[in-house]
Amino acid sequence: MSGSASSKKSCCSCSPLFSSSIGRKWIVALTGIVLVLFLIGHLLGNLSIFLGPDAMNAYAAFLKSTEELLWVVRIVLLTCVVLHIWFTITLWHENKRARPQKYAVKNELGTTVYARLMRISGLTVLAFVLYHLAQFTWQSFNPEYKTWVDAQGRHDVYRMVVTAFSCPFVSGFYLIAVGLLGMHLSHGIASLFQTLGLSNQKLRPVLERGGLILAWILFVGFASIPASVLLGLVKVTSGLPSCPVCH
Ligand code: HEM
Questions:
Q1: Atom 43, ligand 1: residue with shortest CA distance
Q2: Is the pLDDT of residue 154 over 90?
Q3: CA-CA-CA-CA torsion for 61, 64, 66, 70, nearest 10 degrees?
Q4: What's the whole-model pTM score?
Q5: How far apart are CA 128 and CA 160, in angstroms?
Q6: 206 Cα–ligand 1 center, Å
């Protein structure tokens, strides 16, 4: 998001937010903030797995009971994902067109490894989210998950997650994906403040460090779930879970 980009007339000339390159940067930053807030909320909810099946299933049942609100959140998230990706690609094309090749190479060498990997880490996170939705939200790979209910008749989300993560391939994939998510956020969060004009020479190292710490907290938090299942620290209370991939 940092770096120069030329202003460009677009089909969305009705709004300066869409038609100016600074407006597009703001959209990328604001949608990024919404997505980070979702991640913080999602992580806090998922950590209920460490409190046991009752806590996690109660949390999932509570979310399902707020059906209308859940759909509003889903639509906001989807809109943010689409806008975030679309305007990132638009800005990238603008920057590429505006910069001579030699200058672009020189600048890339001056940036961190996280900054250079923004596009690839972002696309991998997108692919991960699609896989994740198919696995846990639509339950397309293991339709039997839909029938799993606990003693209170609630969807047994705890058993579904523990069963899925009992497979080292699934857990391994999650660990890699949340690692790339952490890398994406390490640069992305600090970059947000710069775009929104909240950063200056003095604040920059503080915000960069803050972004790095938040990205690490999210990484460690999300990674702790598959890692704990693999290590046998979180398990199902009755019966051994059968691995959905290698059984
Ligand atoms: C590694 C730890 C994670 C666990 C255990 C986990 C667990 C879950 C579960 C169980 C659901 C389905 C909820 C339900 O329908 O009952 C879900 C939905 C979802 N997860 Fe995750 N998740 C994890 C990481 C992530 C990450 C890193 C992201 C984003 C990068 C993410 C994004 C989503 C989204 C967008 C949904 C759909 C929300 C909805 O429409 O209801 N999750 N997750």
A1: 136
A2: yes
A3: 140
A4: 0.87
A5: 18
A6: 30
- Mean pLDDT of the chain, nearest integer: 85
For 65-93, the pLDDT digits (tens) are 999 999 999 999 999 999 999 998 888 88
Which of the residue ranges 76-80, 138-142, 187-191 has the most confident prediction, judged by mean pLDDT? Answer: 76-80
Contact 118, 188 (CB under 8 A): yes
Atom of ligand 1 nearest to the CA of 223: 1
Annotated domain spans of the chain: 16-230
How far away, in angstroms, is 105 Cα from ligand 1 center? 37
Cα(43) to centroid of ligand 1, in Å? 9
| Average pLDDT of the segment spanning 105-121 | 66
Of all protein residues, the one whose alpha carbon is nearest to atom 15 of ligand 1 is 137
The per-residue pLDDT for 157 is 97
Return the residue matching tokens 């920057």: 95
Residue 16, C-beta contacts closer than 8 angstroms, at least 6 positions apart: 23
Shortest-distance Cα residue to atom 4 of ligand 1: 46
Q: Which fold has domain 16-230?
A: 3 helical TM bundles of succinate and fumarate reductases (1.20.1300)
